[in-house]
Design goal:
GO terms for molecular function: ATP binding; ATP hydrolysis activity. The chain is an alpha/beta fold.
Length: 612
């Protein structure tokens, strides 16, 4: 069993009159990788700060191991504006010292900071400042990393790099995030903070959904159980895009049994037909548009046709013009060349990144009913404003709270509901997952499954894009809009190829100034440094051997899982035989340990194959 880094004993914590943690006892061991989920305001950040020793609990105690080195990342990045990236990340360490460390060099390259070491932090964007804060944290030697919403402000590439990097971190990891893809890639356990307690689940987000669905099935075996959103989400996880199929096979049988009669999340053809009857054949026809901002060309002779019922995900590098493209469709930005034709029956609605002005003096329910009292969520089925607020995490006890007293996440949900209540037939969502917890995101996805209109989503949340959209388009920073049949995986591959091409074309002399000198005095290019921080690149033969070993590990995991279940049954049957119980318990411990080490090997090998 791994050494315990920090343990909590009967910890209580409250905020005002609300109890966030009620007699919570738990611990995190060396090498454990735990994701923390829960409703907004449930106490996730409070739990992390108590474990980190930043705040004291109201009751109980926190016991850290004496030599444990803890590093934390808060939701907000507080960085001195006048200091440079170099000063914040590596401090006064001589360049030849940190540049000779492949781990530190790889972190700076992976986060895109090698060529920006002398840039001041003050003028940087939120995403750039997040990368600096992450780099400062990751270059440290730590035993326990505590990350609170680490993917905030990061684009798809940044999130993917961070997941790969953390896969190689051997210390303890505790991360609170609403990014479900990130949870699946990084975490081996999930803690759910709910009603003052912390419920533990084995596995990443997919396993957490399965476990919750199974727990609910056992508690309620009636037909009403089929309406539970967890089954629907689990069905999508198993039948979803190819990118989601590289998960441990030892959970597949259980998942298939649970969702055997669950229909697909949405009937795409029926929704397109319904959308066409509401929208006609024309929605947006952007023809040969060119948009420039200053001396930058965002779009160069771009043609894009959006039809009725289209569900489009839009990704791209920071500053490529994703938000601007939405504003072009809405007529808020006029292109220098080309034109945008809008269908006669189009009623668009934009969810912006900023929380729009809400009537602060109204109650939450009044603010929604001001726009509409009933919303048709499926043909012939309606939900009231109160029911939708309940579904979106605002129970009846909170629906009469004034808007001005709601949290940022609650106001975000209110903004989204008011938008839907206006009954648009075209939705343009700009980073809709900001400030929303995983349960609210699941409810939003369920609502969008039956929404009969055209949908355009700009988001860095890979899971949300794959879950709600049928098509992915990319702005790669070259002024063009490209279709990605391979989805996010294809986008990341194209971006990686573009970086390698740029590094290959760059003069070799840039290596000495950008990356510093290696241990032997040789210069290191940005591309080489980036490869140092990622998973090893495998040759063709190594890749085939790795895939063969991955299959063997999957079979071993399946066998160990079956044996674990058998031992649990045998333990129940031998409840009165003390000696038999001791023998079975010893075997069970051995099987669980073997299963944990095999799963760790599977995860490590899977990361290497992805990198190769």
């Amino acid at each position: 069993m791994s050494a315990v880094l920090v343990s909590l004993e009967n910890v209580n914590a409250a905020f005002g009159t609300r109890t966030l943690l009620d007699r919570v006892s738990l611990g995190i061991g060396a090498g454990e990788r735990i994701g923390v989920v829960g409703r907004n305001g449930a106490g996730k950040s409070t739990l992390l700060r108590i474990i980190a020793g930043e705040v004291a609990p109201d009751a109980g105690r926190v016991v850290p191991a004496g030599s444990t080195r803890v590093a934390t990342l808060a939701q907000a990045d507080v960085l001195p504006a006048e200091r440079t990236v170099r000063e914040i990340v590596v401090g006064t360490v001589a360049e030849h010292e940190w540049a000779a460390d492949p781990r530190q060099r790889g972190i700076l390259a992976g986060l895109g900071l090698l060529e920006r070491l002398d840039d001041p932090v003050g003028p940087m964007s939120g995403g750039e400042r997040r990368r600096v804060a992450l780099a400062r944290l990751l270059v440290q030697d730590t035993d326990l990393l505590i990350l609170d919403e680490p993917t905030n402000h990061l684009d798809v590439e940044g999130v993917a790099w961070l997941a790969r990097h953390l896969a190689g971190f051997r210390g303890g990891l505790l991360v609170a995030t609403h990014d479900r893809w990130f949870l699946d890639e990084v975490c081996g356990r999930v803690w759910e903070v709910v009603d003052g307690r912390v419920d533990a689940y084995e596995g990443g987000y997919s396993a957490y959904v399965l476990a919750r669905a199974e727990r609910t099935r056992r508690a309620d075996a009636t037909e009403a159980r089929r309406q539970n959103l967890l089954r629907k989400e689990l069905a999508w996880l198993r039948r979803g895009p190819p990118a989601r199929t590289s998960k441990p096979r030892f959970r597949i049988d259980a998942a298939n049994a649970l969702i055997a009669d669950e229909p697909p999340p949405r009937d795409t053809m029926a929704l397109r037909s319904f959308a066409a009857s509401r929208l006609g054949k024309d929605v947006y026809d952007a023809e040969h548009i060119t948009v420039r901002i200053g001396d930058r060309t965002l779009f160069d002779d771009v043609t894009w046709l959006v039809g009725p019922g289209d569900r489009i995900g839009l990704v791209g590098v920071n500053g490529a013009g994703k938000t601007t493209l939405l504003r072009v469709l809405l007529g808020a930005v006029t292109p220098e060349a080309g034109r945008v034709r809008v269908g006669a029956s189009v009623r668009p609605a934009l969810l912006s990144q900023e929380i729009a002005e809400l009537p602060a003096s109204l109650r939450a329910l009044e603010a929604v009913e001001q726009v509409g009292q009933v919303l048709e969520v499926e043909k012939g089925r309606e939900r009231t404003a109160g029911q939708l607020l309940e579904q979106f995490g605002l129970p009846s006890s909170r629906q009469w709270t004034r808007v001005g007293d709601l949290s940022g996440g609650e106001r975000r949900r209110l903004q989204l509901l008011r938008l839907l209540m206006a009954r648009p037939n075209v939705l343009l969502l700009d980073e809709p997952t900001n400030d929303l917890d995983t349960d609210t995101l699941t409810a939003l996805e369920d609502l969008l499954d039956s929404w009969p209109g055209s949908l355009i989503v700009v988001s860095h949340d890979r899971y949300f894009l794959e879950r709600t959209c049928d098509v992915t388009l990319a702005l790669l920073g070259d002024g063009h809009l490209r279709m990605l049949p391979g989805g996010i995986e294809e986008y990341l591959a194209r971006r990686a190829a573009a970086r390698q091409d740029a590094a290959a074309r760059a003069p070799s002399s840039r290596g000495s100034s950008a990356a510093g000198c290696g241990a032997g005095g040789q210069t290191t290019t940005v591309a080489e440094a980036g490869r140092t921080g990622g998973p090893p690149v495998l040759s063709g033969g190594e890749l085939r051997a790795a895939r063969k070993e991955l299959t063997r590990l999957e079979r071993a995991l399946d066998r160990l899982s079956r044996r674990e279940q058998e031992l649990h049954h045998e333990l129940a049957e031998a409840a009165t035989d003390h000696e038999r119980l001791l023998t079975l318990d010893a075997e069970l411990r051995a099987v669980v340990a073997d299963k944990d080490s095999t799963e760790e090997a599977w995860l490590t090998l899977a990361a290497e194959i992805e990198g190769g």
